[in-house]
């Protein structure tokens, strides 16, 4: 009787082991099937994701309202990027020497400390850009729109500005005086006279330079002359 009981217990133990093993195998099969389904689903979405990424790259930014492109400290010298969209892009300290950006859109972009010697920005939209401490020596700004751009401590020596619109731009007074010596033309897009946009002559609008100028601590009693300068030392003229 004892032997039969022991045999029965051994048999039940074996059945329990087999049952546990079968359950374990069942869960393994379920897990494997789930993982396979996940892989298939993700693989089927790859072409759609690639198309979406390409669409975002083409439209430059979420909802096509701007570019999050980063060109900080990038070497863009002697490259051609005409008629491209660089809205809100970052060009901080980028090397843009002798590059062609004609007709491109930069409004809202960051270009502080960028070097753009002899760069071509003709017809470009540079409105609302931060161009602080930028090198623009001999740059071509013909017919460019620089409305509300910030050009504090930037060097525009020898820049071509015929037809450029500097309305409400922030420019250091001495730099503005230098530009007024040869500013001419009318912007074909905005219809604004270049000299008027710079505040050349005895117009009070834009006549006092930038907020970085100490002259703005109080309204100056003297204004820019007809040619942008009178006094060789101060570059200012007495108001008539």
UniProtKB/TrEMBL annotation:
InterPro entries: 5peptide_repeat, Thylakoid_lumenal_pentapeptide. This is Thylakoid lumenal protein TL20.3, chloroplastic-like isoform X1. It comes from the Eukaryota. Pfam families: Pentapeptide (PF00805). The gene is LOC104739878. SUPFAM superfamilies: Pentapeptide repeat-like (SSF141571).
